[in-house]
Description:
alpha+beta; globular; oxidoreductase; GTP-CH-I_C/QueF; NADP; queuosine biosynthesis
Amino acid sequence: xxxxxxxxNLTQLGGKTELPNSPEEAVLERVPNPQAGADYAVRFTAPExxxxxxxxxxxxxxxxxxxxxxxxxxxxxxxxxLFLGSFRNHGAFHEDCTVSIGKRLVELLEPKWLRVGxxxxxxxGIPIDIFYQTGEQPSTVWIPDQGVPTYRGRG
Length: 155
């Protein structure tokens, strides 16, 4: 059980927090994993992720699925929501957005394993799916398929 000081360092939970202007400005926060001795999977899904094309400034849309096996830390979910939302006005290619999300979380959480699937909607007629993973999927944890089908268009 957490003591009163466990969450004292959190700056965003429980109060009004403005959306950061960029991923670099976003503050990702972590909390102790109360089940640190057990291997289990955590999944976050952001089906309405947006960023901007760095060439045209037009919006790009993706369905982001984040799976990880935590070690000592969990990501505080409000800070993750604000971090992902900070890409809304950020110009970057699909690959950069997807891999940057994974690397930033690895740096913060030091998970036993992490995978990010970036399922990007077509822009210029071509859907681009980006996948980032820290290593082999652990055999001791059930991690379901991300469940996002390959883009099939409207036909």
